[in-house]
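User: Sequence recovery, please. Input:
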């Protein structure tokens, strides 16, 4: 009995001590964390990642020189249980120091100042010769830079002394050139120029200065073609006269051969004088049954296309670089049944700009509904009518602007086409006829004679009678400029 009593007393004491302990625990408040450090501050989006240097409450960072400081997104790691404002992962403008505030669990705060600077720009390795010109001449003698070959070709007037010419040269930013721009050189032979980049690397360019053609003799000399054009003729690749309008076998003469080329057997490409015996020009002529360049055209031509030693010259009018063709010329003959002749183009797969003569007295053809090759000629063209109109067709001939509504074959006119700054400008006899706001790419100029009639008009689905395959279209060019 005594033992049981002692047991109950012990249990009671144990329970009392337990309850007392619980009450004491309930009276204590837990302590709150006062940690408020930025532990890591980095720009993970940069490659490589840039991590800031933390010195007390200042964070400094250096990012690559070309980084946009206005939209950087930081990744921030702070003390456990703390928060930061502005938040991690939110873009900020670091072009000036940015203050971040870290708030601890106990609501105490700590401000950090983040300063971001741009690193130094590495030395440039660009070493291009950009432009080369002799500005003493009027107009300026502008050289052609063949970057592919690291060569420059420039032309000075006929019989000019080339032993002491002073060029103006531009090169890549921060690069230098030796010999220097503005220093006279002897250009009777090739001159080597060395462009040195900011990083010390070099590139040599060889400059060749040519005496311009004398304006007589071969067509290339008369029109000062300077190796900038190739020509396509209506002969086949063997140089033979054809009358069946075969496609894809037209004769092509490239700049190297064109310098001394003329076609006098059929009078398709030769030097001529005007009817007064004054101006010397170049005849561009084609027979209407001649060879076609491809199956993509119905018509033959004797026509120049921009070209140089680097290959076909294609350009865009998106920038400030001027692309200009000037022609002083006359359309002298047009086919009888379909009296249409093109005498100047900007082409890029489509006929973006097309200068065309259309005669007033074409032939007419009524096609059969079943077979376009079968039909009736309802009116013959008038071979004695030399009147018509000149027009500029543009945007693949979807639009047209008249140039001369009363043009007579043989009348000499001036045509200037300029492509620059997302515009195309067409001037006729010094008067602006078209200013077209249009961005063009992969373009090139064409000049010469492009007949718009063939010996197969009827089967080609045209509403004109077939032309006599020996019928001639002709243009005479007296002046040609390209830049």
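Assistant: Recovered sequence (483 residues):
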């Amino acid at each position: 009995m005594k033992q049981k009593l002692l047991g109950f007393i012990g249990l009671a004491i144990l329970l009392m001590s337990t309850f007392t302990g619980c009450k004491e625990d309930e009276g204590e408040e837990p302590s709150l964390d006062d940690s408020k450090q930025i532990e890591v501050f980095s720009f993970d989006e940069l490659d490589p990642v840039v991590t800031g240097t933390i010195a007390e409450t200042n964070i400094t960072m250096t990012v690559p020189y070309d980084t946009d400081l206005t939209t950087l997104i930081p990744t921030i790691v702070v003390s456990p249980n703390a928060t930061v404002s502005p938040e991690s992962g939110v873009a900020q403008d670091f072009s000036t120091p940015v203050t971040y505030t870290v708030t601890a669990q106990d609501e105490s705060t700590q401000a950090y100042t983040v300063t971001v600077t741009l690193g130094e720009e590495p030395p440039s390795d660009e070493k291009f010769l950009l432009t080369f010109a002799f500005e003493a001449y009027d107009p300026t003698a502008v050289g052609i830079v063949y970057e592919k070959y690291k060569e420059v070709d420039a032309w000075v007037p006929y019989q000019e002394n080339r032993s002491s010419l002073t060029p103006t040269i531009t090169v890549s930013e921060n690069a230098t050139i030796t010999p220097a721009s503005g220093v006279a050189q002897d250009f009777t032979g090739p001159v080597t120029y060395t462009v040195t980049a900011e990083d010390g690397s070099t590139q040599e360019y060889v400059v060749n200065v040519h005496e311009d053609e004398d304006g007589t003799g071969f067509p290339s000399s008369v029109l000062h073609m300077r190796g900038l054009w190739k020509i396509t003729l209506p002969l086949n690749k063997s140089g033979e006269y054809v009358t069946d309008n075969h496609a894809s076998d037209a004769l092509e003469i490239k700049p190297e051969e064109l310098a001394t080329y003329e076609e006098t057997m059929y009078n398709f490409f030769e030097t001529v004088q005007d009817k007064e015996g004054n101006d010397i020009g170049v005849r561009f002529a084609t027979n209407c049954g001649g060879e076609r360049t491809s199956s993509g055209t119905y018509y033959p031509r004797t026509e120049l296309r921009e070209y140089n030693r680097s290959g076909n010259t294609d350009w865009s009018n998106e920038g400030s670089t001027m692309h200009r063709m000037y022609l002083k010329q006359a359309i002298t003959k047009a086919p009888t049944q379909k009296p249409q002749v093109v005498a100047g183009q900007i082409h890029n797969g489509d006929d973006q700009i097309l200068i065309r003569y259309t005669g007033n007295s074409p032939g007419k053809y009524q096609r059969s509904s079943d077979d376009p090759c079968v039909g009736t000629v309802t009116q013959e063209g008038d071979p004695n009518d030399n009147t018509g109109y000149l027009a500029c067709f543009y945007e693949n001939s979807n639009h047209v602007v008249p140039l001369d509504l009363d043009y007579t074959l043989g009348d000499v006119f001036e045509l200037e086409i300029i492509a620059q700054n997302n515009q195309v400008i067409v001037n006729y006899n010094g008067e602006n006829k078209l200013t077209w706001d249009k961005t063009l790419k992969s373009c090139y100029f064409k000049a010469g004679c492009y007949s718009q009639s063939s010996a197969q008009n009827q089967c080609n689905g045209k509403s004109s009678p077939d032309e006599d395959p020996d019928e001639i279209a002709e243009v005479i060019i007296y002046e040609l400029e390209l830049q």
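The first helix runs from residue 2 to 26.
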